[in-house]
Structures are given as structure tokens and as C-alpha cells.
Amino acid sequence: MAGLYGKDNDAKMIGSVGGQKIPPVDHYIAGYQAGAKAADPDLKTVNGYSQDFVDQAKCKELALNQIQQGAKVVFQVAGQCGLGVIDAAKEKGVQAIGVDADQSYLGDQVLTSAMKNVDQAVFESIKGVQDDTYKGGADTVFDVKSGGVGIGKTNAEGAKYAAQVQEIQDKIASGELTDIPDTVK
After folding, report:
1. 147: CB partners within 8 A, 6+ apart
2. Is residue 58 part of a domain?
3. Would residue 181 count as lying in a domain?
4. Is the dihedral of CA 143, 53, 60, 182 positive or negative?
5. In a domain, 62, yes or no
6. Number of other residues whose CB lies within 10 A of the CB of residue 173
7. E strand or H helix that includes residue 85
8. pLDDT tens string 130-175
9. CATH for 37
């Protein structure tokens, strides 16, 4: 969605702010970068790490720097610290993407959110116990196909791209699209 928005709005750059350089954070950011590049191969991506998941000022400063460099969309993958990213987007009139839960309630600047549907995982796990199909000691993956991850509500700008994003989600769920990187560039 960030890449499609960027392409339509002559953006040369999008940004992301992670809390720390750890695999769960990098998986989000790498997918974001790859999706944006798939939509617009000429789009530059910038990324920074706050080394903090709490202090909003640290994340806001990184986002403001990215916006000053030309980022038209900023993605937060930094928990509470990332709220500073969303605030920076509001302050500077650019788009933001939230993380983990639907953060659209934070303002019209929230294009969408990358969501972990933990409620779905809990529901399916409990259902498995009730149906006697739960396998203790085994990993259960909650992905796009199972509804374990997805996107939140979209703002007016994001709504323009909802169908195209859904097509990509469907390709991921069906296994047609599998070459999603997990390394941040």
C-alpha cells in the first residue's frame, strides 16, 4: 500500500522505524520494503532503529528525519515508541502505517496497520482444545492464509488501494507468492 500510494503521489522515498534490529521487527520491515519496491521499483526505502520500544520521542525524531529527507509514508515497528512515528506523520502531513493492532483510531494520517490477529490465534487454539485437535508441544503458524495476520482499517488514501492489496494477500494465502524477504535492506 505504501508503494502504491508513493507511486501515485510522486514520492521518491518511504521510511520505517523499528524498535530494535531483531528478526520479528525485521520481518515486518523487509516485507514492507519488498512490497513497496514491487509497486514502484524506483522508490527508495530508508530505515532506522530507535533501540527502544517505549520512548516515543526517539521514534518521532527518526521519523521526522526520514520525512525531512522526503519520505511520504512512515511505518512504525516499535511498539509504544512507534506512536511517535504516527505523531510525526500527523505533524508533517504525510501518511503513517501502524503495527500489531489497528491504529487507525490515532488519526486520518494512518494509511493502514500491519496487524497480528492475536484474537484469531487464541480463538483457534481454544477451538482446537475443545475439538481435541490441539497438538501440544508443536508450533502452530498463524499467517495470512489462516487469518493470523492482515491489515487494519484504511484511511481515505489507503482505501484507493484496498483491492490491489487484497490481491497480493490472496496470492500469499494461496502460496502463489512466496518470495517475501525477511532481511532489511
Report:
1. 117, 120
2. yes
3. no
4. negative
5. yes
6. 15
7. helix 83-92
8. 999 998 898 888 889 988 999 999 999 999 999 999 999 999 999 9
9. 3.40.50.2300
CA distance 35 to 3: 7
- The 3-state DSSP class for residue 89 equals helix
Give how many domains the chain has, as a whole number: 1
Please determine, for residue 95, whether its predicted confidence score (pLDDT) is greater than 90: yes
SS3 50: coil
Q: What is the pLDDT of residue 129?
A: 93
Which residues touch 103 (CB under 8 Å, ≥6 apart)? 86, 110, 113, 152
Q: Which helix or strand (DSSP H or E) is residue 38 part of?
A: helix 23-39
d(C-alpha 59, C-alpha 80), whole Å: 9
Cα gap 1→32, rounded to integer Å: 9
Asked whether residue 183 is assigned to any structural domain, the reply reads no
Q: Report the chain's mean pLDDT, rounded to a whole number.
A: 95
Residue type, 89: A
Domain region containing 129: 2-174
121 vs 26, 28, 126, 128, 178, CA distance in Å?
Answer: 22, 18, 9, 10, 22
How many angstroms separate the CA atoms of 128 and 122, rounded?
A: 10
